[in-house]
Amino acid sequence: MFSPEGPTLRELAVQALSSVERGYDLLAPKFDHTPYRTPDRVLDAVARALEPMGPFAAGLDLCCGTGAGAGVLARVCRESVTGADFSAGMLRVARERTPPRGPAVSWVRADARALPFGPAFDLVVSFGAFGHFLPRELPGLFGQVRSVLRPGGCFAFPVAAPPRPGSAAYWTLLGFDTAMRVRNALWRPPFVMYYRTFRLGDVGRELARAGFRADLHALPEFGCRPDGSPRVRLVVARASLRPPRQPAAGRVNS
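RESULT FIELD:
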């Protein structure tokens, strides 16, 4: 399926009926031959947007998968790059593909909701992973990111504009999320992967509560929608120099 090197329909079915961790362990050897891997043009666009903001010293790729995002960090970090993921299978593939040159690279098995690091990073990036977290988990997730960043550090991730209601993409994502909800209602363990739960307004509020000031940067490589708004933006959230206050109002600048 997808390509001759990609997973078969049977392999995808076995993955979908597994836990998230076990599913990605099974998918790891063929993951880069599926549409789930972040496209290179997205990675390149993010790297270009981050380069003027750096250089950074140490970077973390959160939920790194097979390590595609580590290449972005290698372009903007001088000293070290760390990839963290809770799938041993994905990390195994990432280790095999570690580039021989550039900053030192390490791979750590860890749950993003309980990161085993102190404030050791100047930049945290993440690509395509937020659908694995329920909305109620965002405060804890963003709090973990804040805890591993040095004061003034940066948390960056791309966000695509939601598809227009009634479009083919809209119905495709709605259908996928509905199927996943039915699957999780009928089958255990659950497989959390939803495309429509990571809403920018909610994200802005939770970032502010976690101690970030977030701004949006258009990625011009992807053009604009008919209304003139960018198709893809980069969220750049800066960690405040002081601990976050509770409660706090959130905002994301456009």
